[in-house]
């Protein structure tokens, strides 16, 4: 099962003015939320600061290992968000947490990766995700750049990679160890030593299976 977990309820509406369309956003209040891994063994608690407008950068994330009703804290830190992330994904291993976007500003801090002790692995921009030439597919509103609207996101096998399939069909793949975007240019450098061809094909077939597409036939 693939999870895309939204921290906030967001409604988008259109206003017509002088023959043009202007999209505006309506955002709910920031509250404390909890996000579980798919296997329910780990949980990330998001605690925005009560006075978040005057205390940017004080959104705390706490990762727990779950044992029945008991919670064992693994790490706790202020996240890089000024207010709070919009979406959170927790790996089944507990080794990685991926957050997406900034509250009230989708497209800012689009992907942030945290490691097994809460260390910051990578902060991506939409450009570093390879979306510089995809602007025609991405809706813009007063507050946000909706790069991942109607996207599907999930961890790869063993929780060491992360996939994002965008609504126009583009597939992003991240290596979580260092947060690198694993695109064709990355593969040309890594193939043969860091990424064998067989493993590269297996990762793409895994994504196709998760997305309901037919995997590549093996020779």
- State the end-to-end CA separation: 29 Å
Work out the radius of gyration.
18 Å
Element pattern in H and E: EEEEEEEEEEEEEEEEHH
Judged by helices, strands and strand pairing, the structural class is mainly beta
Percent helix range: under 10%
Q: Let me know the largest β-sheet.
A: 4 strands, antiparallel
Walk across the major sheet and give the strand order. Answer: 3-4-5-6
Number of helices: 2
Taking all residues together, what is the mean pLDDT?
86
In total, how many beta strands? 16
Low-confidence stretches: 1-23
Principal-axis shape equals: globular
Beta-strand residue fraction: 35-45%
Describe what this molecule looks like in 3D.
Helices cover 10% and strands 38% of the residues. It is mainly beta and 219 residues long. It has a domain at 10-150. A four-stranded antiparallel β-sheet has the order 3-4-5-6, with no helix packed on it. A hairpin with a 5-residue loop joins β14 and β15. 30% of the residues are buried. Residues 1-19 form the signal peptide.
């Amino acid at each position: 099962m693939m999870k895309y977990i939204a921290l906030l309820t967001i409604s988008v509406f259109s206003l017509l003015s002088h023959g043009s369309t202007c999209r505006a956003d309506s955002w709910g209040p920031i509250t404390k939320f909890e996000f579980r891994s798919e296997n329910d063994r780990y949980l990330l608690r998001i605690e925005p600061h009560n006075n978040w407008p005057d205390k940017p950068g004080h959104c705390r994330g706490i990762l727990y290992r779950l044992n029945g009703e008991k919670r064992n804290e693994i790490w706790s830190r202020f996240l890089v968000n000024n207010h709070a992330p919009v979406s959170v994904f927790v790996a089944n291993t507990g080794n990685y947490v991926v957050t997406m976007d900034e509250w009230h500003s989708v497209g800012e801090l689009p992907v942030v990766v945290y490691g097994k002790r809460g260390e910051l692995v990578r902060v991506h921009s939409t450009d570093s995700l390879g979306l510089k030439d995809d602007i025609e597919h991405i809706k813009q509103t007063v507050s946000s750049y909706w790069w991942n609207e109607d996207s599907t996101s999930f961890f790869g096998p063993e929780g060491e990679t992360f996939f994002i399939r965008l609504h126009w069909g583009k597939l992003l793949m991240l290596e979580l160890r260092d947060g690198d975007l694993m695109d064709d240019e990355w593969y040309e450098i890594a193939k043969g030593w860091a990424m064998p061809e067989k493993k590269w094909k297996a990762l793409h077939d895994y994504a196709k299976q998760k997305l309901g597409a037919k995997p590549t036939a093996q020779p």
